[in-house]
Design brief:
The chain is mainly alpha-helical. About 35% of the residues lie in helices and about 10% in strands. The protein is built from 14 helices and 11 strands. Strand 2 and strand 3 form a beta hairpin. Helix 3 crosses helix 8. Bound molecules: protoporphyrin IX containing FE. The site of protoporphyrin IX containing FE has 25 residues, from helix 3 and strand 5.
Amino acid sequence: MAFKGLLSLLAVAVTLQVAKGAIIRKAVCPDGNTVNNAACCVLFPILEDIQESLFDGGECGEEVHESLRLTFHDAIGFSPSLNARGTFGGGGADGSISTFSEIETVFHANGGIDDIVEVQKPFVAKHNISAGDFIQFAGAVGVSNCVGAPRLEFLFGRPPAVAPSPDKLIPEPFDTVDDILVRFADAGFSPEEVVALLASHTVAASDHVDPSIPGTPFDSTPSKFDSQFFVETQLRGTIFPGTGGNQGEVESPLHGEIRLQSDHTLARDSRTACEWQSFVNNQAKLQNAFKASMAKLAVLGQNVDDLVDCSDVIPIPKPLNEAATFPAGLTHNDVEQACATTPFPTLATDPGPVTSVAPVPPS
Ligand code: HEM
């Protein structure tokens, strides 16, 4: 009888499920959430806290954009080629950008990153979590607030960072395509994966490339994870949204929109142009490719066997229910065709008069 009682108690806490031959233990957390691994339960209070207090109640706004950028700037501090030459090449997605912020945030490529590092620090201190875990967790949770995004993976258990990353590992918008591809290849990414990672710039804005126009987005829909970024970067540049002449900036096709030189050149280089164009109006490919390349990025330098898969804590994003379009006033004639093998997809033009893209508001 006692044995039976114990069994039913266990059944409440842990249900066993056989899926594709593997036994998965589902744990019910104290707050009622169900996860595949009980070690993930501690993440739910952190999720609730950051959705409320960091992301303004679950928005895809400035802090989400900054938190996503931070996942990259922490992780890409990782260089096997430096290690091979006997120099420490950085610990990758280890939280060093926060732990050693006084060193890393002053790197030129990290302009403006100190804002989000400082905003995140109290959350890291309050919750019993490493900075490396927090940065990747906040990035994955943040992206889930953007309509059309994939549900990113999150692996849990990064140890504290041991040393700062060396400088010069983060790509700059004025770098050549050669330099960008070489740097990413060193960190383990193919040209296709680089293009997939740049889907991040669909939920992004710039404060510092042209400091006279903070919050200027890279596409017309910075709170949606859609393919407008890949459409709009392929259009002929005609204007500078602000002062112009800034390092790493080229002309954009729309008032209120800023274009990075690196996005412009990657969209037009023969090694990356067809992959770039392939994301236009292909939401499934956009989601899958971004999810896969972000999964690699988030564990750079980590031993994945030591991490616990807590992806089921990440909320499921809302789907996107709209097709890509040319912004009002622009058509197929404004496309600078760069992919030699496949024509640019046929898209409708937004109705109405030519508009200006609104800045991403600070919160
Ligand atoms: C060739 C590689 C890349 C270059 C040169 C680059 C460069 C930049 C620059 C210059 C900014 C504007 C910063 C500012 O002025 O405030 C920016 C913003 C951003 N980047 Fe990248 N980036 C690259 C790749 C990535 C990747 C791989 C990710 C993420 C996976 C990423 C995510 C973001 C996000 C989300 C923002 C917007 C931040 C905000 O709105 O506050 N970038 N990037």
